[in-house]
Amino acid sequence: MFVLEVWIHYIKIFHTTIHVLKVIYFLLTHSDVSSHLQKTVLKKTKILLLKDKMSIDLNKTSVGFIGAGHMAQALANGMLKAGLLKPNQIWASAPTTTNLETFKDMTCHITHANEDVLSACTVIFLCVKPHLVCQVLKKLTKKNAIKSHHLIVSVAAGISIQFMEKLLPEKTRVIRSMPNTPSLVQAGVCGYVRGTHATEEDGIMVSHLIGSVAMCELVPENLIDTVTGLSGSGPAYVYTVIQAMADGAVKMGLPRSLAVKFAAQTVLGGAKMVLETGQQPTVLRDEVCSPGGTTIYGVCALEEAGLRTGLLRAVEAATLRAKELGNVSTNTEK
């Protein structure tokens, strides 16, 4: 564990090839380091070096969004805020000007023709509604707009890799992802999976792009719908919780503006405690619940109201709906 901490320390401070190589040398020349740990660190080092290379290549990369709704806006705005891309490196297309106004305000390129985005960009985020994926991909394929240098990144809920690959030219590189809207404030989370022809470098490229605005993790495709139900839809659950907490505080006399601020910060603080301490939520909850104190009374009220069951069912329902959307789109294509 000490060796792993040293590796992380070096990477965070120097983040350059020379220091990464020093860490590799240390790992390979110390017999007390387990072979499993060596392999893990070497793999992570390879990914870091590729990311460093790609961060330079991004200066020559243009990213396009087919569909300019909330998710596309969140990703584009987040990438700009992170300094990863410049406005002239981003294109967006939509059938109407309503959503494109946001991209125009960001001084990005806008168009009503999806083919324009393909002509100008190499990384294409497919941000249309699930039921439109088939129609959009078929038209682009028919117009021969998709070339071998394109990387197609879908954020459409429920649409499988296999379904998209059938609609696209042979050997098209596809990645399926599910980011969420807090990417707008660089606090999102995203699960992604590589398609049949997408390379490891493609995965790292997407992880690098989305990772600038969200925690990005590679997951098996059979769990992507669960990611949709949890973190894709999850912000809405959290907003509901924050609103309810604030309403309770207003009922007990706290001004609305202060109640919302306190509730939101409380949720943020609780989330950071879980992520940064590594402890299970139940452990952290028990640490707050003093015997006979205020918190345990509040927790009991939540149990009586069925909060935990409600949230559990929300994730389940959203996951099943994501699967349903995928099935509907597949059946429509047939």
Tell me what you see in this structure.
This protein is of the alpha/beta class. The chain has helices spanning 2-13, 17-28, 35-57, 70-81, 97-105, 114-120, 133-142, 161-167, 200-211, 224-232, 234-251, 256-277, 281-288, 294-305, 307-333, and strands spanning 63-66, 90-93, 109-111, 123-126, 151-154, 173-178, 188-194, 214-218. Helix 4 links the parallel strand 1 (63-66) and strand 2. It starts with a helix and ends with a helix.
| Gross geometry | elongated
Average per-residue pLDDT, rounded, comes to 86
Oligomer: single chain
Structural class based on helices, strands and sheet pairing: alpha/beta
* DSSP strand tally: 8
User: Considering DSSP H and I runs of 4 or more, what fraction of the residues is helical?
Assistant: 55-70%
Largest sheet: 8 strands, mixed
Detail the poorly predicted runs: 1-10, 12-16
The number of helical runs is 15
Strand content: 5-15%
Strand order of the largest sheet: 3-2-1-4-5-6-7-8
Order of helices and strands: HHHEHEHEHEHEHEEHEHHHHHH
What value does the Rg take, in angstroms?
Answer: 23 Å
Distance between the termini: 53 Å
